[in-house]
Write a structure and sequence with these properties.
- The protein is an all-alpha fold.
- The chain has one domain.
- It contains six helices and no strands.
- Helix 2 packs antiparallel against helix 3, helix 2 packs parallel to helix 6 and helix 3 runs antiparallel to helix 4.
- It is globular and about 50 Å long.
Length: 200
């Protein structure tokens, strides 16, 4: 059963990345280098990214249970569960249209945003802080110097990229989406590899 749960976690992390990369590259009017991944939940094809948030989050939640079963430590799996449940909630509550997407939306960030947007932001913050926290905790919970170094590097890289993304978002920089994608790929790859490692 543990192996199945961990396989779900690895599949969920991979599914999330592949889906937003393909959908973002083929979505009319969407600029992957500029727009955030969350904006893919808007528009007529928004259901794809909404489903991606929820399905991937559920699969990674199963993976979090698997990491607990495999390690019998609780803090790292708990951080991973906070990450995955927050990912689900990010799909339930969508961001508001802004910065030119969907097509016809004014550029810039509106002064007033909706309650769902505020909740999406709050859960998004939980996603991007719980993941590096999980990596840093697992760095000291897993045997072997290789995983210690990799997990530490992932946790630090995700925090640095999070601050870079936050600054880019506030300044409305043209490469905001690219920085967020780098954050996601680094972090979600670690989740997938962690689950695969523990399942072996």
């Amino acid at each position: 059963m543990t192996t199945v749960l961990l396989a779900c976690g690895a599949a969920g992390a991979a599914l999330f990345v592949v889906t937003f990369l393909v959908d973002g590259a083929t979505r009319p009017g969407y600029r992957p280098v500029y727009h955030p991944v969350s904006a893919l939940a808007l528009g007529s094809r928004g259901w794809v990214q909404t489903a991606n948030f929820v399905v991937s989050g559920l699969l990674i939640t199963a993976g979090a249970v698997g990491t607990w079963d495999a390690t019998r430590s609780w803090l790292g799996p708990l951080a991973l569960a906070v990450f995955s449940v927050s990912l689900i909630a990010s799909g339930v509550f969508r961001m508001d249209p802004m910065r030119g997407y969907p097509a016809g939306t004014p550029m810039g960030t509106p002064e007033d945003t909706s309650r769902p947007h505020a909740l999406h932001d709050a859960f998004g913050a939980a996603v991007f802080t719980a993941l590096p926290a999980a990596a840093l905790v697992f760095a000291f919970a897993l045997p072997g110097p290789g995983w210690t170094i990799y997990s530490l590097a992932t946790g630090i890289a995700c925090l640095v990229l999070l601050f870079a993304f936050s600054a880019a978002w506030e300044r409305d920089e043209p490469r905001t989406g690219l920085i967020q994608r780098a954050t996601i790929i680094v972090g979600w790859s670690w989740v997938a590899l962690l689950c695969l490692h523990l399942s072996g």
